[in-house]
Amino acid sequence: MNASLLNVENLSVEFSTRAGSHAAVSDVSFTLCAGETLGVVGESGSGKSLTMLSLLQLLPNRATAHATRAQLGERNLLQLTRTELDAVRGREIAIVFQDPLTALNPVLSIGRQITEVLRHHFRLDPARSRLRAIELLARVGIADPALRMTQYPHEFSGGMRQRVTIAMALAGDPKILIADEPTTALDVTVQAQIVSLVAGLLEQTGMAAIWVTHDLALLARIADRVMVMFAGRVMETATCEDLFARPEHPYTQALLANLRQAEGATTAVTADAAARGCPFAPRCPAVADICRSTAPALSRAAHGGQIACWAGRE
Amino acid sequence: MNTWERLLHTKPARRGLLMLLLVIAAALAAPLISPTSPDHLDPGARLLAPLSRSAAQPDTHHPGMLHLLGTDSVGRDTLSRLIYGSRLSLAVGFAAVLLGALIGTLLGVISGFFGGIIEAVTGWLIDVQLSFPFLLLAIFLLGALGGGKTAVICVLALATWVNYARIVRSQVLSIRNQGYVEAARAAGAGSMRIIFIHILPNTLTPLFVVASFSMAQAILTEASLSFTGLGLDPATPSWGTMLNDGRDYLLSAWWISTMPGLAIGFTVLAVLMLGEGMREVLDPKAAP
After folding, report:
1. Helices in B132-176 by DSSP H: which ranges?
2. CB of A41 closer than 8 Å to CB of A48
3. Which pLDDT tens digit goes with each residue over A113-145?
4. A88: nearest CA partner in chain B
5. Is B193 in Cβ contact with A89 (below 8 Å)?
6. Which residue in the set A94, A107, A120 is minimally distant from B201, CB to CB?
7. Domains in chain B, start-ordered, CATH in brackets?
8. What is the tens place of the pLDDT at every residue in B70-126?
9. What ipTM is given for this predicted complex?
10. How many CB pairs under 8 A join A and B?
11. Which of B180, B195, B196, B205 to substitute to test the interface with A, most A CBs within 10 Å?
């Protein structure tokens, strides 16, 4: 395996409320190697987006992130100064957000929004940043990029807008691309186009990527490794093949079983990362006494990945 | 159809714009179109009614000058003073709106974007400003500053900045949580960049509407301040001072006060109609 690019250990995100602090993400650890695509899967509220936002210090005001390590190359992501942060955001790590309808500024032309990123990170002059922006738009499959540059977001369809936000993310020539459910707000047919577009771009550039989604089937197509999250914790991490062929965690097994049946008949549980014990215990088929009292830490799994489960670990 | 074209297709906006352009043209071309200097005294032609001529000069054979709108108590031509007065009224109005918008927008953006103590202080300033009777404040300030063009502009700006600050602040509060602001932040843009490139352009639309309405307010207020003798120097040809000049002659020489009054009404109506049109075009909720 290649050298690791991003190394996160025991990342927690806490919201301070009047009722005290509430953990939304607990002890998340993962590494991302150069050129690798890591899929992060989990249901709504499992903390996958928060984990990503915390890496760029984009958390809402009342949330704070702690980690024993959040290493990007030499730097600790959680201890950057403002200027260092502005240089990392977009340049080292770029994010493509879920909703392309709101991710573009309605009063600025598409060209202006892309050149803005170029000028900020590379100090390009207007003529050169314009050429580069046209190049980027062409790369994300937008026809007649020179004309489209002058248009405004409302003149673009949802899929086209998402292509533009991808172009904006590529503008900083980042080492890591975080795709935070980039296809959720799109039509099914457009989803497929965007996924293959990004997959193709990743292959061309050799960029590492973290793809956040709740769609396990999608990850089967594009991810090298998959991290399964539930209630703010990592349940299991494994290579894509292993996870689908030999899922070890009962939660992953349940997810896959659901996928095969194509129906969502699991009982709802209140997911609370702050609760004692394994968050999946209330609906786990293999639950033991210890699951209810102590949360299992991540440890090596039989398939070579990592798993947080007491079962088979006596 | 872009905003500008739509504006021209709205009836009140088109009429208001036309009327305002007329006033602006008069102000710009004042030396060319005014019959005589606004300060030219002609003791022989005092209190002449509109359409009358002054007496012929004894040593020439020219007939006396035609005073289309009459003369005032010291024999100055009302039309000339009216035309030159438009310069002052417009200049003071524009300058006051510009200054007020600048201060108000800046404070509104800063307080909306950063929140915290700055927002608390700005909110407090706004409340103080709103609870203070404006005329009282104006009398106090003009008394202290001693009148004059600059002082009047400052006082007018002080009266209107609150409108901008409140509107901009509320706009910023909703814009700063928009996806594209977060996206810009994620792309490495700093606070200043986000404010000037992503937030300010989005607040401009309502700003234009507020600006047109405060322009009307500024012209009116300037006139009333000058009328009360607090504003501009009584000798300057301004619509407000002219109103004041004619006060003693309201019954005997009605034109001295009436003409500038009509001019004020015309200009304010023009600006208000333009503003109404802008509101119609720019605010989708107000569309019929």
Report:
1. 134-145, 149-175
2. yes
3. 999 999 889 998 999 999 999 999 999 999 999
4. B188
5. no
6. A107
7. 87-283 (1.10.3720.10)
8. 787 777 888 888 899 899 888 988 999 999 999 999 999 999 998 889 889 999 999
9. 0.77
10. 73
11. B180
